[in-house]
Amino acid sequence: MGRPESGKERLLKAALQEFSERGYKRTTLEDIAARADVSKGTLYNYFRSKEEIFDQACDYAFKCWDDWACERAEEAEDPLDKLRTLARELYAYLGEHPEIKRLLRREPDLFPVFGPLTYRHGGDLDTVKMLRSILASGIKQGSVRDMDIEGVIQILGAIFRLFVVGYADLDEPERRNLAEAALNIIVDGLKARGD
């Protein structure tokens, strides 16, 4: 049985729904309070402003997404299998949480194709830390080419963001097939080559 949801967590989920449906500019604190079934004053017990609730709701969403994918990828042992699992789970999570995908499409500055893969408050996403570990481990084992890890992470992040935001209008099977083909090309390109 999971842990009980806190009052703040309930507010963050309500905020996430509102921001994903209306966007930052059109969402009001009244909208969030109504969705959470609390008074506007209750929001001020937890947050100082709309901007703060937005930042925390985004970080909450990214943290849930991050935890989900990393937990599942941890089960794989081979670095390249771990990378495949991580990518697939990141993508699968969005299918189960359309509010996050809507938010990313509605607020493209949250997830620019090129830019840092960090939380709103700063700090690398756990998936970035895991990617570093996967690539370093693969290089050490000889299963991954010796290459600039930070550069690879930026490229992988840009490709992933392109699929999340850029291909949102494709039908799901077509988008999933395209993502799987891209993943195969990426993993093949990362593999170490024999002499």
Task: Explain how this protein is built.
This protein is mainly α and about 200 residues long. The chain has a domain at about 60-190: Tetracycline Repressor, domain 2 (Orthogonal Bundle). It has helices at about 5-25, 30-35, 40-45, 50-75, 80-95, 100-105, 125-140, 150-165, 170-190. Helix 1 packs antiparallel against helix 2 (about 30-35). The mean pLDDT is about 85.
Q: Which structural class best describes the helix and strand composition?
A: mainly alpha
**Overall 3D form:** elongated
CATH architecture of the domain at 59-190: Orthogonal Bundle
- Could you state the order of secondary-structure elements as H and E? HHHHHHHHH
Distance between the termini: 52 Å
Largest sheet composition: none
CATH topology of the domain at 59-190: Tetracycline Repressor, domain 2
- Total of helices: 9
CATH class of the domain at 59-190: Mainly Alpha
Helix content: over 70%
Low-confidence stretches: none
Return the average pLDDT rounded to an integer. Answer: 87
Radius of gyration over alpha carbons?
18 Å
Bin the strand percentage.
under 5%
Q: What's the helix and strand layout?
A:
Elements: H1 7-26, H2 29-36, H3 40-46, H4 50-73, H5 79-96, H6 98-106, H7 126-141, H8 149-166, H9 172-190
Helix pairs in contact: 1-2, 1-4, 1-6, 4-5, 5-7, 5-9
